[in-house]
Amino acid sequence: MKTMRQSTLQTLGLGDVLDMFRAGRLPADAGALVDRVFGEPAQRGALVISGCNGIVGAGKMMQLGSRLDPFDVPVVGLDFPGAPDGIAKQYPGLVRAFGKESADRMMARMVRLTYDGKRLPESLAAFRPRFLLEAIPEILEIKRAHYDLFRNAYPGIEIRSVTSGFPSSQLGVGIAHPAFPHEVNKVFEMVEPQPSDVTRLFWAIGLIPVPVSDDWSFVLDVLFCGITLAALRYHRDTNMPVWKIDKYVRKHVGPNPVRAHDAIGTAGASFLTWSCLHHLAEHYGPLFEPTPELVGRKDSGLSWYPPDHFRPVVDWPLDADGEADLQTRIVGPLVQMTALMLHENRAHLTHLNAMGELCAQFRRGILAVLRELGPEKSIRIVERYHRSHPEAAQTAWHADALARMEEPAWRQLYVNAEHDGKVGVITIARERYNRDVDAELNRAIDWLKQDGIDRVIVTSDFHLSTQMVGADTGEFFPALDDVDEGFRVSESWSRTARRLHGEFAVSVGFVAGKRCLGGFLELLSHCHYLVSVDDAQLGLPEVTLPVVPGMEGCHWPFRKCPSGEWGRLLHLALTGKSVHARDAVGWLVDFAGPLDQALACAWETVAGGGNGLQRRPFAEGPLADVTSRLPNLPPTGSSAAEVARSAILATIRDACGAPLADALAIQAKHSAEFMASAVCRRGAVGQERDRTQV
Amino acid sequence: MFPDARIPYGTWGSSYFPAWQQSALAEVNIGQFAGEAMGKILGHRRVPKSELDYLVIGSTIPWHWKFWNAPLVASCLGERLPGYHLEQACATGLQAVIAAGAEVQSGAHDTVGVLTFDRTSDSPVGVFPERRSYQRTIPLADVWDNFGFDPATGNAMIATAGRAARKYRVDRREVDDLALYRTEQYFEAKRSGFLDRVLFPFDVLNVQGKPLGRIEDDLGVRPLTSDALRAMRELDTCVTGGTQTHASDGMACLLVTDAKKAAALSPRPEIDIRFVAKAEIRTEPSLMPEAPAIAVQKLLERTHLTMDGIAVVKNHNPFAVNDAVFAKALDYDWRKMNRTGCSLVWGHPQGPTLTRILIEALEEAVDLGGGRVLVFGCAAGDVGIAALFEVGERGNR
Which of A67, A384, A680, B369 is most buried, by the most CB atoms less than 10 A from its CB? Predict the structure, then answer.
């Protein structure tokens, strides 16, 4: 087995993705792991979440309760008698996700007990606690005493802390630090000597455990607290109100860090941020020193943003120089903090990169940003930042950690490739296609070709990317004003997709998650075969944004589709409504089935086994009268979508009506021209640009 | 007067003063605007708001939530400061600076922000239930009804100008010439870029965070001609639409601190701005325009100075008659005053008027290489206020 870089599944002790296809099943079985963590069904023990009424505790009661529900694991919430009920607030979300009947059943299974902090309730024993997820306040002594309480009562109990800052070495237990919003975010930073059954169980029930090293605040809160601190420091130095700084941070990095504190709950969130930074500053110096404003907020709990009746009156626009200075003071500390984490090897680079995107609203991963800047520019930004904060230059500055950007782990942050000498697997660890994914996908293809691999499966990474939702619309912002830029994006991404068709003897697109939409469906459709789990949603939602599909979705699928089924493809593209994979066999996908069967089918197909699929004919010449198969379409409901529907129909007509050699440019031209139209600028992409680009 | 107090050079600023109802300032809570605007001015001046430890605010027209006073405005500035509100009609903008000097001199506070503001547009209407009054319940529009009626004398503001003009035998032609000259002084200061050093533009947002308007000019100021002034109808003796000020909206701010901190905060630490003296008088009923001249006479007497020893003379002059009376009373050439403009021209938002005048005067003195700065003006109730400052070089008196 050869890999471009270490697979992230290996960090969980789950092997390689290629092995999974070869075995025809996932490397971890949820039922077996439940038995190992909670005991056999007859002796099933409980998950206990202490601090269950807090934001973290209540969210995890819902998330873990719902995911462990099929395995009859009792979930017991523990809190003080006077703690305000945080669990009932979660009930509406549970109803939305699972329906009232299931939600009621799950709630009925959740047991809530109270205690005084010193003695565990006697009734807890009846539930046989096997795993404690501790979510109590961030006070070291209290946490340690809490663990002793449980260990004395239930020797051998597995304990994980949700702490956002304390290392495992301080607490004496493993860490499972979850990301906000806790009821839905699947990411947990895991600290443990070796990947445990708990970690593998989390993965097997659809969560995203991410191993990190045992260093203060791990990865996520260095990034999140770090960017918050950078914003607050800029506020302190310049008086610019935090709401405006947030807008600039959103423009240049992605999140609204200060607003997020108010959204989470100012008092608790500010305390946690202060706690992380305070301990980081004690350990690493002034780079992390909390500002007095943060110190004050942790005690007062006063919102960072002004109340509604004091919505800001005075705007604070910056000129180009001012904005460059702000960018330096926001990004500079972030680069320095990232260099520190790299120096300490805090996580697999793909994890370190993805954490900001998955959990802190970063528009792009921090390492992807640094990689684009290059080491020299990255270091210069930090040095410029040090002019405004010279104390930060004294400690914790590891410029040398930025010097290895040419290594595979840096170059393949999102896309990995593995092969066994005959078959390759390309995995994509990002849910939205962007220029980073495109570049890395090309490098992965090059790498496989270089090793003589001409059979490939293209899929998600079975870890960080649980679905493939299409193109990152932020990539289209420049194209809203520049038709050439729109053409360039569409044309270059389409050429990448065509490599999957033209440069391999066999290519299989594999949909493992719950949806594959837009650009990703266009990409995987370029493979010779498309295999999917049967309940995955497949769709081309572009018409609803509205944009015109840019990766050949308006002609490529038609060339592989029997003419009698063109109406279904037209419906897909012109309504934006998705279909289940099981309903798209024969005209969009080649096989749909349960995950194990789909894995096996993909492997047999790519490896050339006897049970492989029959390849659908592919028409390279012009297709006649595609649009004459237009089915009755429901109204889109908006004038913009009607315009887009017409544009997509025209694109289908022109691109299908041309030979394959010409169709790419035709599609790209239509896509680019629509992107630069007023309709598109007023639509979701334009609104998103206006909202996020100050 | 306050030997330990200083005004740090170049840490001040003012909004433009758009005439009432002509800008987005007519739509805002002016206390909130002032707080946010001061934060931005200080930011531009590279003074972190955290340097302040007290705030004296001044305004004359009730604004929403004024009960919450300086602490609320400080919150809008972005800093939780204590402080108080001070009000003395049109003297507010100078009195607030004096009060801040007293706070520093007393040792009560280290760095005091002075923030004055008012919105004459849509001033609130107060309802005063007074059962022993024959009207029982009296509604009062805060700006116009007060201008029109001094309860102590029964006369309007404008009547005091007419009475003073008659008492001093002021000539209408001279008043017209004076008003024309003042306008030319203003436009020359604007052309020279002088005003850009003290006035800040502001983009005002609506509640949705969208642009409501940009405050970037003293809207309502118009060039005058001699013929136009001559042709204007006289409203009272020597008072026409062209020889009196107009209501406007705005804010102004500066800092007062000790000498060491002033040097640390100022972009030009070598400049030393001291408080020298203050005087205040109340003249005979309905002769308000002569009150400032009398206050200045008192100030000069007490400091044993003459007008020859003053480098910059600048005043709040709601009526051109004020300056004509001052010139006669002090035997002083009114052309030597108000060289960078005055409230007669750029309008009168009441609270911040004398603060902006002081800021402009200090900036002018720095241009001249230093010297004594005399700032004075009239206020409701036939009051005159005058204060003397000295702009020098640090270490030299």
Answer: A680
